Amino acid sequence: MKENIKFIHCADIHLGANPFEISERFEDMGKALEQVCNFALDEKVDFILIAGDFFHNKVLNPKTLEQAITLLEKLKNANIPVFLTEGNHDMETYSNVYSWLQFLSSRKYINLLRPNKKKNEKILKMWDEKEGCIYNAESAYIIGLGYPGSTAGKYINKVNDELSELIKSGELEDKPIICMLHTGIDRFLTEAMAGLKEKEIDPLLKKVDYLALGHIHTRYENIEKHYYNPGSIECIRITDNPFNKGFYYINMNTKNRKIDSEFKIVKTRNAIALDINVEEAKTTEECEEIILNKVQKEYEDKCGAGSKIMLQLKLNGDIKQGSLDIDISRLKKSIASKIPILHQEIINLIRYVSEDEIVIASDVSREEIDKMVIENKIEKAGFEKEKVSKIYNIIEKMKEYGEKEVIDIENSYGEEIEKMLVDLVDE
With the C-alpha atoms ordered 313, 316, 319, 321, is the resulting torsion angle positive or negative? Predict the structure, then answer.
């Protein structure tokens, strides 16, 4: 058994994904995986883990299969094994019980580690060169647990019990145990997303030396409990963060099980998602200028000169009816003239309000609401804007003293209000 092993852990490759039906985006998925493969070849890693969603679609087109085989063949020729477990995008359908991952596994491009799904049988079975989920590698056991689905909690309990039996019986030697699981921990905890609470998986974590996660496209990790989720290696959606995409490069000491992890960045298609409030704009021209300036600054700060980007804008704010007339088509052309665009979408969430409507946010206090309503009434009465706050203050003083039942035109309270009124009239 080697004293040290080094491997790559990636997930959510989504080969074949083509967001927005743009050919460049299809190629982006392959280019991201190519960077992972090239790193593996340069570093001569012992193996690669792919924790689910290798493909984006269950039904492949020839170009996607060609892309996969071209990249995997380089690893196969270099004797770098690829261990893969299924994600929700990879699993066979009811009408097609033989998946494309099974095809790649049969051709020795990957080792597909699948838990046994037959009723009344054990989930964990040793790999027999064709099927099974426990691979007995030279320096570690690699276990593929797949996508647990809506019964994730019960499934993990059973896996933990079976693994305990295998360890106790001596069927598993004293070697590191590395598991792959396509699920989120403490994230998107819904049945549809197959999420697990950390406390549900704690018993399994005590037996496993490294848990390689997938499914959630945003990177997160718990170094103390040695579970890691690299996120997707490319942006599937514009709102994905393109500046933190990549994979883990792991060095593990097989004797003391010490793990050194390093997150390696993959260069992806740049994407910008911006929320822009346009309330400060007085004219349509000013509004468009605000938008263009903010987009250009974001591009220069984060992207710099380079390839075409994906852009999503959400325009929001409350403006008076008829004050702005935003032409989305013209705005898109203006943006494209300033920065290189592959795809852009502009979502208009601006709320157009009438002259009499008062817009109140959900977190505003009762006192602030009163102030907004009264000032609105004063302004509607024809007073100049600069006088509104002074008149409001007079009314508030009258309310305050009135509630205390101390107001009298002959006493000091009345004098104070009288002075405020005189000052207002003098102006």
Answer: positive
Q: What is the pLDDT of residues 286-311, one digit of tens each?
A: 899 999 999 999 998 888 667 799 99
Q: Is 203 exposed, middle or buried (0-12, 13-18, 19+ CB in 10 A)?
A: middle
What is the DSSP code (8-state) at residue 78? T
DSSP line for 294-348: HHHHHHHHHT-S-S-EEEEEEEE-EEETTS----HHHHHHHHHHHS-EEEEEEEE
- Which fold, 4-265? Purple Acid Phosphatase; chain A, domain 2 (3.60.21)
* Predicted TM-score of the model (pTM): 0.79
DSSP symbol at 126: B
167-209 tens-digit pLDDT: 999 999 999 999 999 999 986 555 456 688 999 999 999 999 9
Closest CA to 194 of 205, 185, 183, 179: 183
33 contacts 236 by C-beta, under 8 angstroms: no
Measure the CA–CA gap between 52 and 178, rounded to whole angstroms.
15
